[in-house]
Design brief:
This protein is of the alpha/beta class and 775 residues long. The chain has 19 helices and 41 strands. The model has no long low-confidence stretch (mean pLDDT 96).
Length: 775
Amino acid sequence: MIQTKDRQLLIGGQPRIVMAGEVHYFRVARGEWGQRLDLLVEAGCDTVASYIPWIVHELPDGSIDVEGRTRPERDVAAFIDLAAEKGLRFLARPGPFIMAELKNEGLPYSVYRDHPEVVPSGWDGVPTTSRTVDYLAPAFLKETGRWYDAIMPVLAPRLEPVGGNVVGVQLDNEVGMLAWVTNTPDLTDGLVDAFGAFVRDRHGDASPYSAAPGSDDWASLVRSPSEADAGALRLDLGLFMRRRFGEYVATLRAMCEERAVRDVPFLVNIHGTEGGNGAPFPIGISQLVDTYSGIPGMVSGSDHYLGEATLNTMTDLYVINAYMAAVHDEDQPLTSLEFEAGSGDYGAGAEMQYDPSTADLKTRLCLAQGNKLINYYLFAGGINPPMDEKLGDGNERVSFTGERHGTAAPVGPEGQKGYAYSATAAGIHAVKANEPWLARMTEDHDDVSLGLVLDAYMTEYHHPGSALMTDVVNDLTSFRGAGERKALARSLLLAGFRFGATWLEASEPAAGSTVVVGSGRYLSERVQSRLVAHLSAGGNVVLLGRVPERDLDGTPCTVLADALGVTGAVVRRDFEHYYPSLVAHGWAAPWPEMRAGWVQPLSHSRGDVVLTDVDGDVCGVDVPVGDGRCILLAAQLPSDPAFFGRALAALGVRPGLRLETEWPGVFATTMSSSDGERTLHLINTSGSPARVTVGLDGTAIASGVELVLPARSGHILPLGLSVGGRRLDWASAEVAGVGSDGAITFRPGVDPDAGTTVVVDGEHVRLAPGEHVLA
């Protein structure tokens, strides 16, 4: 039995952390399957994941081979059963869409050839440039049913609840991604009609449009909107597509359950990173929130490609996890269904090579935030098989990448251990050694959260000819989330704050708490009103960005500004020989002058000035509202943990974790379980050793001893764990294993040249350098 409960993943009633690696059976010769799986086991993984691509299994005559009668690599059951023999669970990803660099994103050519009506056009009737389809088109669902008729009978008798090793089924893959990256909504005739019905339900007789839904002019209004209709259309279309994606995934789930695939988690893959940047990731959450949020049996998983583990990418990853958790219910755990692994050399041309510690450091951050399933993608490369029909497309193979695939993976296309294998394996083994504790733990949070304005990420569709749509999207993109330059999130992390996120459209911030929000000119009336209510009731808000003055459809909305008693003037940006700089006042002073990319002068009726430009124009105020306070910072600020730490301290919020370091580069957080066990997580992303002193809840850890973190290293340090019948109060190294006799083995840890300090059952023990076992 597999359950998701209290943000844990329970397998056989026990909390577990699933560590998986993606191995594509269809890209590996059947005689080599065992060798790839052995390498996965050697690396410490307990699960193998694989796409099951429709395009690989459908033959030119329309029949589907999943038994291996036409090619041995098509025997899906044999691969799953071999994994079981190796002691591996299986995570099934049967599509219908799978991407994976396959042609048509994994759909057979017959779908497009036989059913042209499922292929959408976009703005102005221009054909889509991707291989997307209208997901709910009847013909597409019928064809998907035919695929499921073939593959689900393979999975059903192998599900974990009936004694098999299949522990989860992913429904489709990166739903909505193709429309987002091309800015091409799926505007088939059927979808446009369904959108009209949605508009009638949403607006009733008060339609904001110049043509009535269903009228002769409706389709052209949607495809080629006028400026008068553009604001409402952008907003309504995004909301409608959320609902439609929810209906699609629910339909796929029902189709699985009708075919006896049930009682395992159904997984939804959330896309959104772009060019190594995690800032757009919540676009995927926004698109797919209705597919899983609060729905029993559904679990979302991140899909991120961020590159090297740096201050920038680790900030992105922290925010990604916080935002995902914010829209989960109280039972849904964090997972990652595509966790970037390998060297980054995706083109096999040595254009990119990540430090081998990258996957390990990212894994450690995700585990520290409560991830319970991580699937390394891609763990093993392979060889793309030829298509069964001639295409005349230059390579005649199932993938557009050519013959070899997965050149960056920890295991190369020919089965050789790659550049990142050893480091990745070391990280996985560290996770499994600490699984008994981490599987039951959640991250500790201070009394501050990052505001998630999910509708600010509803920017995937905007007509390129609409000035209003473009202005709204540009504004939202610039200011949302972690703030410009990611200053809010990075400053909090480097100041030692442990924080989650609050979904502001759906949730009230915790009473009396502080919420930090990146906001621009456009902010919905719903969110503005919620922030005002939070302030009035005694909560606090830190707002970084422009003064909100319009709703998301472009109509004026100054609810928040009116409550603050502020008005924003025209923004002044740096250009040519103008270099705006800021001066701190009040609780922020004295502080060095700060360079800013732009400033917005403020008129304010009350409150204290905390920032001006060098000419004295106010751009930062601390304003009382009801029983709470709002700090409004209307300027582009850099990450500055000391400055933002002062802002929060002025509101009475201080980090429970005190981290003193020589320079930026160290991330830290803590986790705890319901029975009081706790771990300290330290990650040094820099290329130099970092000297660190840590305090927790006002008490110095390790009596204030300075810890030396080796370069590019991560550490899970015990802060009161039950280990082998003893209480492990503290150790300056992480647990690497516990013997049957209760002996505790430690991994070489912080400052390994100085040995390991252990406090067990209140007794201090010193292990000499090179000594790693506590009998």
